[in-house]
Write a structure and sequence with these properties.
The chain has 65 residues and is mainly α. It contains three helices and no strands. It has one domain.
Amino acid sequence: MDTLKRRARRQSRRTRGHSIAQVIAELRETLLGWKAYFGGAVVLSPLRDLDKWTRRRLWSYRWQK
């Protein structure tokens, strides 16, 4: 989970200079890959927490722009 968040932080840095659509596309690819790999073994609560965390990151990215 920490590795996934670290990667998502790199992809959603506010000073990166990419459009929000490009950031969402990159995050989507990463998160769907992670869910496909670990989805069967993970309970729903960590996925909900990750969803909330990702939404906050994207809101912060959008707000900065």
